[in-house]
Design brief:
The radius of gyration is 19 Å and the shape is elongated. β4, α3 and β5 form a beta-alpha-beta unit. The chain has 7 helices and 10 strands. The chain is of the alpha/beta class. Strands 2-1-3-4-5-10 form a 6-stranded parallel β-sheet, sandwiched between helices. The longest helix is centred in the middle third of the chain and has 17 residues.
Length: 249
Amino acid sequence: MTNTIILGDGGLGRAIEAALVARTRTDPGHGWVRVLGRPRDGRHDPHELAGADLLIEASRADAVVANLIAGLEAGARHAVIATTGWPADRPRVDSLLREYGAAAVAASNFSLGVVLFGRLVETAVELFGSLDEFDPYLVEWHRRTKLDRPSGTAIDLTRRIVAAHPRLAEVSDLEVASVRAGASPGMHLVGFDAAGETIELRLTARDRSAYAAGILVAADWLGRGTREPGLYPFEPIVDELIARERIAA
């Protein structure tokens, strides 16, 4: 039985809660689910988190370390970190996990579609990168309240494009536009423009259920078998999910 606490009562936190509650209706073995908003003093009391096996961080970048410490002190040994904008804290987070003998999965975006979209982008860059007349660009659009700009997903896509494109030496060489307006849960567009035509790859999130589904995949992976302490990426987990056994000749 896995008891779960979600830290962050915004749109993402509530989407994760809905996905977990729906699961418990068909499989009571998944235990209880609680959602906690940001405390007034900025730090959760570990006693509030007692009894949780799994901690899901879905709050704010500046709260990731403090929330993780509170969860580890409360006894949680598995975590999924779905918050973005905290790359400078990654060494500290990994150190804390190893210190407490805990394991966590972190990603800038837990959408399964985003992971596969990134691979499509890499293939497109390989095709169009050798053609001087096509210029690559990236546009991302999120709700007006999203703090980080560009998004974590846009940063990841930018790195993929620059790494694969022969005419781009640095991240700053790629034209990237960030829009913060309205209530869009997330749109990322990678394009290649030439004088006579434009090719675009677009991924649009309709709601946060796609992110919640991937977070549950990561949580399930943590719960299967014994994981060495430390911080894990999401992409290898997706590889396991989509792997197919070879058909014997």
